[in-house]
Amino acid sequence: EVQLVESGGGLVQPGGSLRLSCAASGFTFSGYWMSWVRQAPGKGLQWVANIKMDGSEIYYVDSVKGRFTISRDNAKNLMYLQMNSLRAEDTAVYYCTKERSRALHIWGQGTTVIVSS
Amino acid sequence: DIVMTQSPDSLAVSLGERATINCKSSQSLLSSSNNKNNLAWYKQTPGQPPKLLIYWASTRESGVPDRFSGSGSGTDFTLTISSLQAEDVAVYYCQHYYGNPPWPFGQGTKVEIK
User: Fold this and answer.
1) Which residue is closest to A42 within chain B, CA to CA?
2) How many Cα atoms sit within 13 Å of B80 on the Cβ side?
3) What confidence tier does B10 reach under pLDDT thresholds 50, 70, 90?
């Protein structure tokens, strides 16, 4: 069964850092682009970042450029999102997704990040 | 960047009736390399992650009931639920994946039972 499990969310103060992880199973992780998508409380979906199979191409939404870093470890079937200089507006559920034909084919259950003092 | 706009923001439809959601992009999503429209539709029920329904604008994901269909090309797209069922109550999002990211979503359309 294809599965994505996010972890690492929590409560952090403004300006702080968190690292989210996404554990993948049930498919050949190294063969797929992977993405992070977030959803602020009561709001819609926001695409955040994605990373190519070998990590050679990476893209971010403008609002996180310079603060967030996406990475992956294909040997461990893990994807990461390092989030620095966190702001209140980064408060959201963060979803890990597997791309297929560029669409977001499989979604994890999400991990919650709350940025508050 | 391409902007995605859905309409309406919400709609109420009677059980068994048709529901139609529109999605408009600020530029064409038709890829000349494969003649496909780079657009997907997702369904999200409360407390759950989104689920892929449609990709390439009209290709139904495996396991998605055939009452769901996607249509359109270029900049104008439609998701149609031909006969609304109770389990279709959800928020529906379109998203483009044309060119390089970012790939924004539409703002979402909430579908309820009338």
Assistant:
1) B46
2) 13
3) very high
